[in-house]
Amino acid sequence: MSAGTVPAAPGGATPDRWRGIAFEERMATVDFRVGERAHITVASEICRSCTTQACVTACPADLFAPTADGGILFNYEECFECGTCYMVCNHDGAITWTYPDGGQGVVFHHG
Length: 111
Prior knowledge:
The protein has 111 residues and is α+β, with helices and mostly antiparallel strands. It has helices at 23-27, 44-47, 54-58, 84-88, and strands at residues 30-33, 40-42, 64-66, 72-74, 95-97, 105-108.
């Protein structure tokens, strides 16, 4: 393999495969298998004291919504499991993140 050559991933996929493909089309290759147990929980009481609510703007799936009383509503069912919300949250205990149960969560199609 020559320098600068990107090896093909299993199934023949390369990083170039996704160039020029819209995010929505990429996400069409993904299944969201919703488990009975939420893998992310949000403590709305803690969120009420948050002045930034960074999770609302940082979530790439747009799953956080501020409530009229200052809390946060969260819908885990289409979560990408990226952890962005957990990383930007500045209040201990506001967001609890765990791995989804086996066979649940984001499932990528191969090929």
